[in-house]
Amino acid sequence: MQNQYRILPPEVIQTTVQLPSSKSISNRALILNALSLSNQSIKNLSDCEDTQVLVDAFNSNSNVFDVKGAGTAMRFLTAFLAGMEGEWILKGSKRMHERPIQPLVEALQALGADIDYIEKEGFPPLRIRGKQLKGGEIYLAGNISSQFISALLMVAPLMEEGLLMHIEKEVVSRPYIDLTMNMMAKCGVNAKWRNNDITVKPQKYKPIKHEVEADWTAASYWYEMVAMLPGSEVHLKGLEKSSLQGDSNVTSLFTELGVSTRFVSDGIVIRNVKQKTKKFFHDFTKEPDLAQTLAATCCFLRVPFLFSGVQSLKIKETDRIDALINELKKLGFMLQENETGMLEWSGERCEPEEDPVIDTYDDHRMAMSMAPGAITFGSLRMNDPHVVSKSYPNFWNDLQQAGFTIEK
After folding, report:
1. Partner of 186 at 20 to 30 A CA spacing, among 27, 35, 171, 211?
2. Which of 66, 215, 247, 289 is catalytic?
3. Which positions of the chain have pLDDT values less than 50?
């Protein structure tokens, strides 16, 4: 029997939420701390599963690391361990062993790394024989995963010859690469990005004190709830106006869907302002992690949409395009993926299931983006709700505090 929740909504939401720390910043801070041989502790480190597997890896005496479902940890550790003396085994969950890692492995091999596939060519688990990497010049597609680029950048200063990376095709999730380079700069390492080339000369990291801000992607689910409930106002703590997180763009995306944002000393206050666009268009190339939230919100508000820049969603924790099409159909919304890789809802409806049960596909963002549907439908059942622990372990408690009823 699967673990299942029934979610029942409040009439209005007036609450204050302490959002989880950013896992993107936490994970980079852990790698940079290790590369700079720092003994400083990281302030406000995320307590999510994705970050915990990295913490466990750095505290482990074993040479076998299991990252479970944490894609960031898999990619960052692949590059990190390739440059660390010793023999390492890097593995993960069943789904992790289906997520391609070949572009990163081939790039590292071209830079002098010794990495083998233990099972299927192109996929984890990996055997890594770590040593100092020679470095040099590589070509990498920008439209696969920004995490491949970030993983290489962070280890680049320790390579004998440094790194010259030519990025081909359009870059997906560019703000995440900017975040990596900015955090490297704070640790005393400069990388230059000109046109499609990033250059990192051999340099030494200096240890610094990292402090992690709250997670803007986690904020998006509260934007979704506020958009759906007139009279609602939520104070989200820990967010910064000058954030380097690409998903801070959620503030402008949701103005079209009737949510205003006001910055206050310790975060933001968001309010339902009852105005919305007739049709929602957006290119999610820079912030693919917001696509599920916006797809669900638009359907629940009956706002047709057309999304481009969602190709990277197919290689995430699950094929997120398929998952959205399947689960929103249960609620009566007919989404289409067209030939050019766009995701669209024209407004077409079908008969919703009588008492639908939402599947979460081992994907935290499926659970959190679909949960607010309880507001539209009066209640909603969900399988495996605990997947939220991957990035926002306190999600269900925060919903209860905001007035939702969660029946187990």
Report:
1. 171
2. 289
3. 1
